[in-house]
Amino acid sequence: MALYDIVIKGGTVIDGLRTPRYRADVAIKDGRIAQIGLVSASDGAEVVDASGKIVAPGVVDIHTHYDSQLFWDPWCTMSSWHGVTTVLIGNCGFGFAPCRPEDQDRTMLSLSRNEAVPVKTMRAGMPWDWVTYPEFLDSVERTPKGVNVMSLVPLAPLYTYVVGIEKAKAHRASDDELDQMCQLLLEGMEAGGCGWSSQIAGDLFNVQLDYDGSPMVTDMMTEREVTAFSRALRRIGRGTTQITGQLETAALIARESGRPIIWNALAPTGSVNQHGESQFPHLATIRRLDELNEQEGLRVFASAQIVRFQSEIVLENYNLMDIFPAWKDAGLGTLEEKIAKFADPERRPALRAAVDELGGGFGAAGYPLAEITVNWITSDARDALALKERYEGFTIGEIATREDKHLVDAMLDIAVAGDLNVGFGTTMIDMDPKAVREVASCAVALPGISDGGAHTKFVTTGRFATELLAHWVREHEIMSLEEAHWRLSAYPAMAVGLRDRGSIAEGRPADVIVYDPNTVDALPQERLFDYPAGEWRLVQKAVGYDRVIVNGKTTFVHGVCTAETPGKLLRHGTA
């Protein structure tokens, strides 16, 4: 009988703690790392040849929206394809508990727009065998999982449950209602939640709106409400907060709670002035983060955007132009209503003006509309074959020139002809390596913002770990691999209160990845028709990962799923 379940032989260990890499064998038994050193291959029931490979801790993905997807996809792909072994759900204040049965559909409608999760998929794929947040965690625990799951307590469901969405938006919460919500927060924390989350947009640029185009209920949180939730966390004496909103709001929460906070988001916003000189506004944000942490003694972490954006735009459910009222209004309603609005010639001037205001750009990332390509047109469209022959593979700029149209008219005429079920593919928005180095190396930066489980028809930012290892470290050398794995695993684990994950050490849970540093990379985008109710999603798989191991069980071998589901619910940051 073998002494160990798995022996990883001859790899280069990067332990996630920023210590120098070293050659060693790693033995795994009963879900934990049993020995690091020289181990005989004959002692392993399974032997992994890691010669020339990196052996590193599994990635901790702290910004996901797998709250629904985990019920039909135990491995939370895309994340697990890219080396992730632990995910944090409940981000941005959005989630599904507590929730009364009569509020389920309204809650799913909200998530269908602000995080762009197909509503018919949620309706078909979620068990809804809970009302309270503790019952939700119980449901997650008994659901087979291919990754570990930890959860924040999102605030939007608390408002729905206690106050009601429309009442809360119109009148906010009374003192008694606010106290009830704080009690529910504490109940969620006692059940195993790791903190609370919220989107507090205020006057910020915001494309994550409710299904009717109004702000989310948390967007209008007052200082009174923010302070109350923060002080509730102080009373319990543990937990982390995650917010999307103003940095100064994050600072207020950190002061009032006395707890760490993860703020979204720090991004490389490099620009060039009229003299051709590079200017990096993100440096001012980094200075402010340094002040908050070093001078005020707060613990304010920053989720850092390091993924180059490339999207597929499908106007059937696209919401990333919602900053412009004309686009937001056209994108609301039933499919038939949207088609009529986008076809309406009286609406076109305002739609064109919005794109002109962006200098010919489109979407939150400002993709050059002229360079966007018609990737595919649904086969269900009228005259589909003719449309495909005329437009597929051409850019909007080429089509606009050929048909003597404004770029917006060229795009919308094709979209309407295809009943809005047309895929427009963008170019890759690259980023200045110097700016990315400054952002990713900021003292409190946590590279990520995968948004895994959200915006699944638009973006593939769940590849962030591979992007860091392959593009930014291997090709641009913005940091060492030791630094990268610390920021991908041990550092985010510490920030969210994970007690025993994120590093390789004897006795720790065996969440381990084995990969080739010379070949690891993200594959091109593709559509998968693997969601419940026949829905599709845009994904990017990976190459170069030999093994993904979760709690001592191999879940992926060279990108192929083993069907093992060893993931655990990490209540209070451990399991």
Automatic annotation (TrEMBL):
GO CC annotation: cytosol
Record domain Amidohydrolase: where: 46-555
Gene3D superfamilies per the UniProt record, alphabetical: Metal-dependent hydrolases (3.20.20.140), Urease, subunit C, domain 1 (2.30.40.10)
GO molecular function, one term: hydrolase activity, acting on carbon-nitrogen (but not peptide) bonds, in cyclic amides
Signal peptide per UniProt: none
One Pfam family per UniProt: Amidohydro_3
Superkingdom of origin organism: Bacteria
Record-given protein name: Amidohydrolase family protein
Annotated source species: Frankia nepalensis
